[in-house]
């Protein structure tokens, strides 16, 4: 796509990136067919091709309006369009650049500005968010239905195994996860301990920066990244093998640290190294496949002896639906790995139609665009429950919390289902 950038962005790093991305787009529109917001709203400007066109106009100097901003706000950043695009258009990066440019030219006002400010300041602070969540959990039964659905009951990380692993990996605690679903990292620690890996958190690390970046605060996201790098670096130099993420949304962000801090002379090199070491927990478990299969075989023995069933009959006794988060399948491009682990663990995965579509959680999207988000959640739950599973597995806290608010079926991180399976 031929582009003539306006003075404000021509010659800048963002301008060069945007130009290269725009050049790749050939207007074919294949991406539109797999875009959740286009499917729901039926407007070209609420699909990737239309949004690319809007961003191009802004970067060429056409003044954006509130309507331009609305079409960009409605994008989930799910990146299904990137998975579909045959030309390799890096849409999400172009969107970040476009959103920043629009944000500067069409300032937000009133409730919208206030809500975004609150989300930007509270969500990424584990202590503030955790305190608010604890208060909510204490009075949960008294809360009105809609709010109650967003506050999970108080739970714990469970019993952790003593540190006997010779291999050590860092794990990101995250901002919302410790207070909402502490058992996710608890389960990851127990499972990896059984595979000979000690997972530990660096206490100074915090939010990965995704919340701020998605609320158009790039400088805040860079600050979060620098703080995490400072927290992790001494452990990396001391031999920590990897930095493990149990939320695929955080995984996408940390794996992008090299790009995020590429112009920061003091941090660029360290950021690139940290990004290289970042792993989704499914990558770590998949790399230990032989040890995992041995563990599963051992844990199946008592069951098999007690029931008299063969291994193949034991498998399939627990139908489970897997919701692959957009950040896992489109962001990290990790497709099928979790499903293989769950199948090996004896879960019978039920079919899920339109598995490429977003559930509507998308970070703060469910709060900022509640109507679209709710429609997507209802569609996703219908697809997930069509095969009559006993429960649902996912890989990102945002999706888990969002989906759980709409069903009584248990929804857990897949590592929690695996942890329970190995505990038998
Ligand atoms: S990121 Fe998702 S919602 Fe946004 S344009 Fe692409 S497919 Fe549509
Ligand atoms: S599929 Fe790719 S090349 Fe085609 S319109 Fe969409 S972004 Fe452009």
Written account of the structure:
The protein is an alpha/beta fold. It has 3 domains: 93 residues, Alpha-helical ferredoxin (Fumarate Reductase Iron-sulfur Protein, Chain B, domain 2); 158 residues, no CATH class; 123 residues, 3-Layer(aba) Sandwich (Rossmann fold). It is built from 25 helices and 8 strands. Strands 2-1-3-4 form a 4-stranded parallel β-sheet. Strands 6-5-7-8 form a 4-stranded parallel β-sheet, with helices on both faces. The longest helix has 20 residues. It is globular. It starts with 12 loop residues before the first helix and ends with a helix. The relative contact order is 0.10. About 3% of the residues have low confidence.
């Amino acid at each position: 796509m031929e582009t003539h950038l306006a003075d404000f962005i021509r010659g800048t790093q963002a301008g060069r990136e945007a130009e290269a991305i725009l050049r790749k787009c050939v207007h074919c529109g294949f991406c539109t067919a797999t875009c959740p917001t286009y499917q729901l709203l039926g407007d070209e400007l609420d699909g990737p091709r239309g949004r690319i066109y809007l961003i191009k106009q802004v970067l060429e100097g056409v003044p954006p309006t509130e309507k331009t901003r609305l079409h960009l706000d409605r994008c989930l950043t799910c990146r299904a369009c990137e998975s579909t695009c045959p030309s390799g258009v890096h849409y999400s990066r172009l969107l970040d650049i476009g959103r920043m440019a629009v944000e500067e030219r069409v300032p937000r006002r009133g409730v919208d500005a206030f809500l975004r400010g609150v989300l930007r300041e509270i969500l990424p602070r584990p202590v503030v968010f955790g305190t608010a969540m604890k208060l909510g959990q204490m009075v949960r039964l008294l809360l009105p239905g809609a709010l109650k659905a967003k506050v999970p009951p108080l739970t714990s990380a469970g019993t952790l195994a003593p540190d006997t692993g010779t291999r050590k990996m860092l794990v990101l605690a995250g901002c919302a996860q410790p207070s909402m679903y502490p058992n996710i990292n608890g389960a990851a620690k127990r499972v990896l301990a059984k595979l000979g890996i000690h997972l530990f958190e660096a206490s100074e690390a915090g939010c990965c920066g995704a919340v701020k970046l998605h609320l158009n605060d790039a400088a805040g996201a860079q600050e979060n990244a620098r703080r995490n790098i400072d927290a992790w670096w001494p452990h990396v130099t001391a031999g920590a093998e990897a930095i493990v993420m149990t939320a695929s949304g955080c995984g996408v962000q940390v794996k992008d640290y090299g790009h995020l801090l590429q112009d920061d002379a003091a941090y660029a090199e360290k950021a690139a190294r940290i990004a290289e070491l970042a792993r989704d927990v499914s990558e770590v478990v998949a790399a230990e496949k032989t040890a995992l299969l041995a563990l599963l075989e051992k844990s199946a023995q008592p069951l098999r002896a007690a029931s008299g069933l063969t291994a193949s009959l034991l498998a399939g006794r627990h139908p489970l639906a897997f919701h692959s988060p957009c950040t896992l399948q489109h962001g990290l491009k990790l497709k099928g790995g979790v499903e293989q682990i769950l199948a090996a663990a004896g879960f019978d995965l039920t079919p899920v139609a339109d598995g490429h579509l977003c559930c509507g959680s998308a970070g703060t999207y469910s709060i900022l665009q509640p109507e679209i988000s709710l429609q997507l959640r209802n569609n996703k739950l219908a697809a997930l429950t069509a095969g009559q599973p006993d429960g649902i597995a996912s890989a990102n806290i945002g999706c888990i919390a969002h989906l759980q608010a709409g069903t009584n079926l248990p929804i857990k991180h897949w590592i929690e289902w695996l942890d329970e399976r190995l505990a038998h």
